[in-house]
Amino acid sequence: MILFVAGIDTGIGKTVATGLMARWYAGRGRSVVTQKLVQTGGEGFSEDILMHRKIMGVELLPEDRAGLTCPYVFIFPGSPHLSAELEERRVDTDRLEDATRELARRYDIVLVEGVGGLCVPLTEETTALDFLSWQGWPTVLVTAPRLGSINHTLLSLEALHARRLPLAGVIYNLYHTARPEIVDDTRLVIERALRRLRYDAPVLDLPRAGCDGGHEADFSGLPLRQP
Description:
Structural class: alpha/beta
Number of strands: 8
CATH class of the domain at 2-37 and 106-211: Alpha Beta
Helix content: 40-55%
Shape: globular
CATH superfamily of the domain at 2-37 and 106-211: P-loop containing nucleotide triphosphate hydrolases
Strand order of the largest sheet: 2-5-1-6-7-8
Radius of gyration: 17 Å
Strand content: 15-25%
Order of helices and strands: EHEEHHEHHEHEHEHEH
């Protein structure tokens, strides 16, 4: 099973959520691996993959060292298409697809972390949403109750719906504090949007304690096998 972990924006908590999801699946006896499509703002090795492994409580995997779990790392902290261009390189989406397919051959579950939001360009011609549309993977959307998140969340859900992409769930990241009125109302807005778009997907709270590693996050609403 392959799940794509998308965010409504950069810095929303995709990396921590992906690591916690992997730990949750592993705790239920599934062989699980995470992948980062493209890492920017780093050099040599993917910082997000390192964070995944830290949260999972495991050492680097052979697939990490072979580059399968993050086929591209670029130095400049920007959109993948720009970061690649500045190094006179280009993201090959076939290479991304091949790496994910190989991971899926070796593991029960592959969690593919995206880059920024859904419409971030991987190349001049291809966004992350385009790539996801070609694959048809179920998506887990990470959002949070911060100012501006309602707009970004609804636009992301509309984009997934327009491409007829399946939604496995919404992770509601409560790491960043917000007024209780905002927390409760934003969740209601998201739930109403899911009903309107006819997405039978859960909204799963990711409490601050889960992000800090204080306890196991509960992802029991997510699928254990290919939907």
